[in-house]
Structure formats: C-alpha cells, structure tokens
Amino acid sequence: MMRSRPLRKASGNRLTAMMQVRNEAGRYLEQVLEELSDFVDEIVIVDDGSTDGTARLCQSFAKVTKLVTLESPLFSREWELRQTLWELALSTGPDWLLSVDADEFYEEAAKREMRRLIDQDVYDWVGFRLYDFWGGTTHYREDEHWNIHTKHTRTLVRYLPDFHYFTPRMDHHVPRLPLSYAVLPGFLAELRVKHYGWALSPEELRRKYERYMDLDPEGRWGSLEQYRSILDEHPRLVEWQGKGNSY
Amino acid sequence: MNYIIFSGVSWEAYSYKRLLDVLPEREDIVFAGTMSSSEQAESGIRSLSLEEIYRLPVKDFTVLVSSPYWLQDVLALSPAFVVALLEHCPEGEDGSLWDKYSGLLAAQADLTATASERLYLEQLLSRSGVVYLSGDSPLSYGLIRRGERLYFLADYEAVWKRALEELWHPQDKAADVEPWAAIQLRHRAEYYLSMCTKLPKQPTVHYLAASYLYLLGDERAAQLLTRSFELMLLHDYTDCLHSHYRFFSAMEAKRGNLELAVRQYEITAFTAEERAVSEQLQHWLDSGRRELVQAELYRLNEDGAAAIRLLEGAADPEARSLLLLNYTDTFQWEKALRLQQEPENTAGDPAAAVLQGSGAAISILQQIPVMEGTLYLLYGKRHAAIRSFLRAAGADQGARALFAEMADLEEAVGRLRGRMADDEV
Fold first, then answer.
1. What does pTM read for this prediction?
2. Tag placement on chain A: N or C end, fewer CB within 10 Å?
3. Which of B233, B248, B263 sits opposite A166 (nearest CB)?
C-alpha cells in the first residue's frame, strides 16, 4: 500500500499544546487556557497532585482533551513528570507539540504566525524568546542571572514517529522537551513569550526562593547564585514594549 | 611463498618490518629499492631495482604495496596477488590524490591491510578482505619458528598470517572454521564493549562498539548506538543526525525491518535530492522490491560492501544500476565499466536506469569516461586516457582539472621513483 503522506507535512498539521500544572487556581491558568484555545487544536495536561480546583478549571475548557491527575506529586522527580506529559501528548497523535507553562503567554504576533510556523516541511522545531516578568506584568528582568530572552527557547516541535526522544533523568531543571530535537533543524523566531512565573510579590518571591533551596540546597541541579538573586532588592527591570513583530 | 615489497619510503623507514618477519612460508622476499648488505643479511630480504623486479617471474610472487603511486607498476607486473597496505596521506602529498589512488589500489588488491582503525572501518564498508594491523589484546595468538627465532603472534599478526596463507590456499567454505575477518571483528567488538564499561559516558566508544557489532550482525548494535546518540546529546554534540540515524536505518535494514528503516532514513532527508531518494525508497517498498530498498539503505549509510554483496546476487533488473553506483563509490571501477559495457538486457543501460531512478546518481553518466580515463592511465595507456578525459569534459572547461590531476599523479609517481633511485645511488 502506498503511504498516504510524507513524514513532514507542509499543510494540515494538527497542534497539541502540552502543559503540567499544580495548584494554579486563582493565578494565570484560566487566561492561558483561554488564549491557547484560540490557536491550538488540542490541549493535554498533567495535574501534578493539585489540592485546589485546578483540575476542574482544566476540564471546563473544550480543547482540553486529556487530563491526567497524579495522586502524589512528581515535582521532586521532574524527569518522570516530563515523561508522563510527553507520553500523554503523544497519545493524541499530534503533528506538532507546543510546550507551555501555566504562566506563559505568546504575544499576539506569535499566535498569528503559529499556523505558518507549523505548516512547512523545512524545520522541525521553533525557538521563541522567553521573557521573565518580575514583580508584576509590566517589566521583565534583565541582568547577569536573568537573561533567558537573549537566547531562544525551543517550545514548539514537530513530532516525528520512530525518532529516539531522549530526556535526561534528572530530578530538577529537566528540559521541557526531549534533548533529541537539538540535532534536527530548527527555526529561531523573533517572536516573544511572556513568562509570569516571577511576576510575584516580594513575599511570594521569598517563598519560591525557599522552595528552591529546600529542593536543591547544594545547587546540584541549578546555580545557587541564581537562587539567591531571587531575593535581590533592586533587580534590573526593563519595561515591556508591545510591537508589531515579524519573524 | 615469495613476496615483493613496494614501499613509499626507504627500508630504514619501512614500518612493517615485524609483519615481514611473520609472513607465512617465507621464501624469496624482495624489497624494491636499496638495502645495505648487512640489512639484507639481517632481514633475510634482498633488494632489487625496478628493472630487476620486472625480470622476476612475478606470477610466483605476492606484492605488498604501501604507496598508491606504485599502482601503475603493480598493474603492469600483474603478480599472483596484491596486498594493499593503506596509510593516511603523508606530509607533502596531495590528500585528495592520495586518497583516490589508495581507494583504487585497495579495489585492485586481493587483500587490504591497514594500521589505522579509521581506514580499517572505511575499508570494511567498501569491500571484504580487510585486515587491521593493530590490536589491544595482550595475549599471544600463535607462534612461529623461523630458524633459531621464535615469534609470538599478537592477535592481528595471527590474522595477517592466516589471511596471507588463504590467498594461496583458500579456506574450504564448507569447513567449520571461523573466518579470520570475523575473528578480528569479534576482537574489536569485545575491546570496545569493555571500553564502554570503563568509559560509560564516552559517545565515541559506544559508536565504535555499535559499528563492530553491526558488522558482525549482532543485535546489540542498536542498543549501543542509541546510547551513543544519548551521550552525544548530553555532551551537546548536535551534529550527529546523519552519522547516527543513517546508521540506525542500515541496522534496521539488516534486520529486515525495511518499513522502519525507510522512515528512519526519511528523518535525515532534507535536501531535494534526499527527499527524492526517500520517495524512491518508499516506491520500491510499496512495489515489494525489498532487495533494492535494503541495498540502497546500506549505500546511504556508506556501507557499499553490504550493498554490493546483496546486489551481486539480486534478481531485480534494477539491481544493476544500484550496483554500478556502489562499484563507483568504492573505486571498483573496472567492475563498474564491465557492468556498463555488458550487453543490454531487460534493465537496459544501467547508467540510464540510475539516472531515472535517483537524483543522487545523475553524475554517474559523467563519471564513466573519467573512470575509464583513470584506468587507462593506470594501465599505461596515456593517449587513450586523454581521449576519455576529453570526452568526460565535453564542451566545457572541465578537462583542465582532469589533466591537472593526471600531471599531479605523474609527478607523484616520478617523486616516488626518484626517491627509490636516490636510494640506489
């Protein structure tokens, strides 16, 4: 039998967003899901043992087609958590996968261009510029320890069956997508993603710092200096500018 | 047994003296060039000039050639057997010329040997009858007595000795004896498997272990290659898609999992040419021409040797065109030309078939007169070579490059003979 389609399709690709969540009620999750529902075909979620109404909130979105709720959290065994989410995402038979955090927002231009980014047969992944918003949703942080936006982060990937997807077995700071994508051709888009994970009050920042130090007191998985910089009283903040982007 | 040694360097600098000591059934051994009388007495080897060598009954001799620029003389002499001792390009020589004529020497040889593991692996992927002249086993694998002296053989020396013996006395294929080539592959595989235990985070040793296991047809190869791929990623060595995925594809092809192998190849196919190959593979697969698929996947992983083994016995009419490609890639140009000149059968002209079948092979038509000219040159038919090169160049200016290469070869041969003559002064 003639196979119906090539490995890389230039049209008609389905996009599945994948997300892991934990106690997100009352934060950004609802808005993230609303926005995702506008530009992805399907959303899959692993709820890492939430004790609030996160699961109910997820279920209220029609595009959330798969939701797995873990009885005991895997936060301290991040590799397993990533693997669970990856397998759940693959069960939707996706063409492309978008890895999203519950506090990440793609700017308008990125959402507009999403279909053009996936309906091509040249690149297998797309990198975006992620900005860490700090203390609120108007400024992002930019200094020695907080500069992720100066590089591209791979969040959008083509799913290629029969490729070996390798994720290192680490407890923390596990890459959000398998490392294997690094060998495939990618596109570095000048499109931005707002990350609100640090858009917190000073008290919330301190609690987050303490959580990191509890989990990784010796800086085995990340930099202790960066952990300490969470408490900087006067971080260097830059005002976010909306712009009509092209990529 | 009688041997003639054609070296690229003087006797003093000749690096295979120990291998000469352990040659099987040594009788008359001749070094082309100069040796002092004490060197001759000590080694039991006599030296002769080229003119004197041409007067020997060379049909009774095996020649050991360690410079590709002796190839014209070797072909003119037409000895009983040719053993190519391949080396990396020495300083001061043109690398591409050296590699091309080393390839042609290996293709003409009855046995190829090298002390370079890289060249050994490259040759294993081009042909059979390849000996690795180095090893890592501390054990002795045999013993020979010559006069008063005893020689304890290293693993590769035992293989070298047996390979030479089998040139004159081929092993009965029905005999239940492990072939020497398999013994050496097994030794290399065992060595790298032990290295994987000692260096569990080293991607290259895992890759080499996978390579030898693949050549042995051992199923563990895929597992080792997978680990090598993961280690490459952990080391941030990201330029490994082709090296690993084409290899995965060849492994699956060897196991008969052709559908998976084709999909794995497709992961690596980005250019228009690669995509055309991918479509061709799928088309062959859909029409049940599995031998062609398997052979082409071997070739795409640069394993011309496996492709040729398969295609030489293949019934598919289009196998001839793939065979032509593989002969060309592996410098087996006489076979390529013979195939090209065979009377047309149902498959038609193999070069034309290649042209229709795969974008990757379009240049084969242009290469045929180049191959023909090169072989004329090697057989001393200079005018015929020039005519072929002119035909290859056609209307454009391509002839200049071919003539420049011809001059480079003549100069390299001249230098080699000059060095030999200087030694004789």
1. 0.91
2. N
3. B233
